[in-house]
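Researcher: Here's my situation. A collaborator sent me these components and asked whether they could plausibly form a single complex. I don't have experimental data yet, so a predicted model of the whole assembly would be a useful starting point for our discussion.
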Amino acid sequence: MSINLAMQKSFEKHVEEELLLDCMRCGFCLSSCPTYIHTEQDESQSPRGRIALMKAIRDGKIQWDSSVEDSFNLCLGCRACEPACPAGVQYGALIEQTRDAVQEVKPQKKFEKTVRNVTFNHLFADKKDLNKAVKLVRFYQKSGLQKVTRKIGFLNLFPTFMSDMEKALPAVPRKVEKLEPIKSSKVKVAFFTGCLMESLFKEINDKTIELIKLLGADVIIPTGQQCCGALHAHSGELQKGLRNAKTNVEAFDSDEYDYIVNNAGGCGAFLSEYEKHLKSDSKYKEKAQRFSNKMVDISSLLVKLGLIDYLNTLPTSDSKVVATYQDSCHLRNVNKVYEQPRRLIQSLPGIQYKEMMKADSCCGSAGIYNLLQPEMAGKILETKMDYVREVNPTYIVTSNPGCLMQMKAGIHKDKLTSTIQAVHIVEIIYEQIKQVSKNLTTYEAITH
Amino acid sequence: MDKQIVQLFINIVGEKNVKQSTAQLLAYSYDATANFQALPDIVLSPRNTKEVSEIIKICNEYKIPVVPRGSGSNLAAGTVPNQGGVVLLFNHMNKIIDFDKENLTITVQPGMITADICSFVEKENLFYPPDPSSMKISTIGGNVSENSGGLRGLKYGVTKDYVKGLTAVLPNGEIVQTGGKLAKDVAGYDLTSLLVGSEGTLAVITEITLKLIPLPKYKMTSIAYFESLEAAAKTVSSIIAHKIIPVTLEFLDRKTIDAVEQFMKIGLSTDVEAMLIFEQDGDLSQVEQDIHVMTEIAVENGATFTKIANDEEEAEQLKTARRVALSALSRLRPTTILEDATVPRSELAEMVKRIDRIAEKYNLTIATFGHAGDGNLHPTCLTDVRDTEELKRVEEAFEEIFEEALSLGGTITGEHGIGEMKAPYLEWKVGEPGIQLMKGIKAAFDPNNIMNPGKMFAKNTKKRVVLQNVY
């Protein structure tokens, strides 16, 4: 069978015609698409263009070639086109289905294959492997080797972007100090720790737990949880993603939990879509529904548990520093959460919040996109950094590990490390509360 | 396309500005019109008027079709390259050339996004009123070529009322300038007006000078629900008779309201037959007075519910139904066909009723909303392009809708244009002598018929439906 026919058959099998027909080609999505904007408005790099291409391949109207493949590959999967669409086109589902269809027919390129292999078959398939890798990174950081390799610049042999990412690796975690609960509550929260967050960003996870406990709730970390599976699903490995989904749905299936919380926007969106993905699986359907219904992101949970009321009771600082917020695409476009993190930051006593232009537009991280498409990811990050410089904040606050690393990479690249810091929202809230309580203690010590 | 000709184009615009991959050709094979698609041979992005002129000279020499294209949000298949050839993009020609605060004009390149022009001039307390629904993505070049309308048309007019001057490349490659910044200019034929709305069939527009007006200071919104179409229509007539010209006066029929309620669950009463949205802008006292009078007129004419928005946020809430109308409708069936038959506003209720009867006759779902103030309706047919039998009925139904609109003194298109889609019906509106005159103009400009061929004029005019007088 020729690749054309094989691809057409695969598209027929994987890509739903009904979903394609939802697109009425009005073009309202165009201005929301980062790749359309960064290709000087090339329609073949727009959501409308990609949907037309999916349909043309499925209908056998055009031949499969590298230009068609590039168009699909260059999609960030940020889903900014979904809120912009008046017809409710499920673009996220369509690009996932397309990648599944392509994956089934087309062997990947070598670089992509290596990244994929390391990412899916090792790092994210098993938490133990990821922990091992992290230990290596830690050793690398601690031993001073990091400084040496940076000096020698051997990573510069790789696409420049990868060496920027290398610089963005988080520091070795410190022990997180406990916060005294301000009230008691009967709320029980199960924590979906996430694989990157639990390994590379362990400190942020510890602070997440402290913030929830501060508001009186109980935090439980169910055993047996796995990587959410989002990276798999976004890269044409939906079945592998669903394997993880089923494990997680089992691990969290308890009446005891009022909420299931996550602190990574990319994971959160996929976790909330378990319900949709497992709707025709009789064994998991109901469990997945319960799971997705309880799923909540950390910002929304903190607002629900009353953190803003607490923050408002804290004395405001005279010397405020500027913070801005970079939306996590999936938290914003899929879970529609964008007010809560902003409200939280605005309520922090030592922070003056400034919104940057196009904060809702992708930073270019997009899962493993910045490894696979370094050139486009670099362009998108450059534009993002222009907007950052306009606001000139002390902190860029993020809600997802990918965005966090990407923003750190951008800061390094532009040599802004002495003035700007990228942080996770949990970090800035935790540190601010810690700071105020320290000031209060000092004040009390002086006055008494 | 011949390799040597491709090389000629590359010599003009550079390799980077030539698109010819499979994906790119497919991506420029459509616009927003359902069921029209054709591949171009090449897609070019010139960087200035001179490059456009050089491209056009080659096209004219080799008789290659040229289709100028903005963002492809056209609703009459005006930018589908149905005879192949060159699709001309303006993604590099998207800048402001001149902003003249003394003469209140702005001169821009055609690729500039309409909404960007609006927000730019509004920062200076000036106003460019035409606001087609697609303005966030549509280009001004597209708007000028289509003579686009919008929600504010009733009070402020449409695109043509703001175009003062143009630079355009003729099909022989010569560059002409028409009009200018002047308020008065009667030197010769009004070529500016001729080119506005010519849908890329006469010349390629490369610079546009627009008139600006002072930005109105205040804006207010109110809504009214009615139990009958007549009550809503009487309200519209009565408002105009009271010498109030609101900035927008929008209308939704019951089917649209039902779809919105089903989609949004915002508590719209389902026994409502029609909804009107009023907006007025200007000085505070006048705006307040107009909004209150309009709302009172609605009550006098039997409105069952009215509400005046207290602030911008509430106004946005009240307008939700209108804003999501198309979204809500488009979710009902796979294919959405949006029409724009237009009648004198006095015939609004009659036209909506006739549309309903036609929908019933052909067993179709057609919901109607639109700009009540200027009689510009959007009968929207929900169908499925895969069902050829149903599609046949859709075509027949729309033919009857055109016929009805004409019989009420209206037109077959208020703001979407003729394109390829309505070309077979143009003669119904302008008559045989009208068509011949237009064809003569076309031939004078473009003897080789390279400019957007296959648009505006059809090979054959549709046989006119002879309607029995059943109403």
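Model: Some features of this prediction you could bring to your collaborator: Chain A touches chain B through 31 residues (CB under 8 Å). The longest strand of chain A covers residues 321-325.
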